[in-house]
Amino acid sequence: MSEPVSISSGIAGRYASAVFDLAREGGEVAAIEADVGALSAALAQSADLRALIASPVVTRDEQGRAIAAIGARMALTRTMQNTLALMARNRRLFVLPQLLAALAARIAEEKGEIAAEVVSAKALTRAQADRLAKKLSANFGRNVKINASVDEGLIGGLVVRVGSKMIDSSIRSKLAQLQNTMKEVG
User: Fold this and answer.
1) Residue 103 and residue 14: Cα distance in Å, rounded?
2) What ranges do the domains of the chain cover?
3) pLDDT exceeds cutoff 90 at 68
4) Which of 106, 109, 104, 114 has its CA nearest to residue 143?
5) Residues 170, 121 contacting (CB under 8 angstroms)
6) Cβ neighbour number for residue 159 with a 10 Å cutoff
7) Rounded CA Rg of the chain
8) Quick one: CATH architecture of 113-185?
9) Residue 122 in 3-state DSSP?
10) Helix 29-45 crosses helix 96-111 at what angle (to 10 degrees)?
């Protein structure tokens, strides 16, 4: 299982490195960042797009035409459109999610930012997200960009992941700890 993930990450990493270098040379890092956001949102919202990039039944030409139309419709940068076309020609569109993650990480690194994955029981307000970002920035010494999501199963609290560090202050985890403690006692 880890081998295909490793291979996909390697392929995505090479494409991401090339795209990032081209964007930096061309002074279009901000535009590529916008492309990454738009494509990430499109992948999250469209099951058809996810099927297009993953399906072995769709031919190279069909993938190429479809991804070219998507790139034009989304007004992606020429660099991103060319990269997507090359990936379609090489049957590598299946690594698009990993490519977008790797590009986002490279852009954040360039900007001196780190990403924090925050899962909460209810959607965070703008003020809450800003306060959390300030506290995390103070702890990590870098600007923190919050990527928030909601999991009602947490009951309350937060789960925060920054790099390899995780802070779990959710009610669900506290109840699980209490349950384990009670099993040990009784």
Assistant:
1) 10
2) 2-109, 113-185
3) yes
4) 114
5) yes
6) 19
7) 20
8) 3-Layer(aba) Sandwich (3.40)
9) coil
10) 140
The partner residues of 167 in beta bridges, in order of sequence, read: 160
At 115, the amino acid letter reads A
Q: Does 112 score more than 90 pLDDT?
A: no
- State the Cα–Cα distance between residues 177 and 109, nearest whole angstrom: 36
**Residue 114 binned pLDDT confidence (cut-offs 50, 70, 90):** confident
The DSSP code sequence of 45-107 is H-HHHHHHHH-SSS-HHHHHHHHHHHHHHTT--HHHHHHHHHHHHTT-GGGHHHHHHHHHHHH
Residue 160 to residue 158: CA distance in whole angstroms: 6
Among residues 12, 33, 35, the alpha carbon closest in space to that of 24 is found at 33
> What's the rounded Cα separation, in Å, for the pair 84 and 95?
11
Copy the structure tokens of residue 83.
């990269």
Chain centroid to Cα 2, Å, comes to: 19
Class level of CATH domain 2-109: mainly alpha
Distance CA 88, CA 49 (A): 13
User: Hey, what's the torsion of the CAs at 73, 77, 82, 84, to 10 degrees?
Assistant: -60
pTM of the model: 0.71
**Tokens at 147, concatenated:** 């990527």
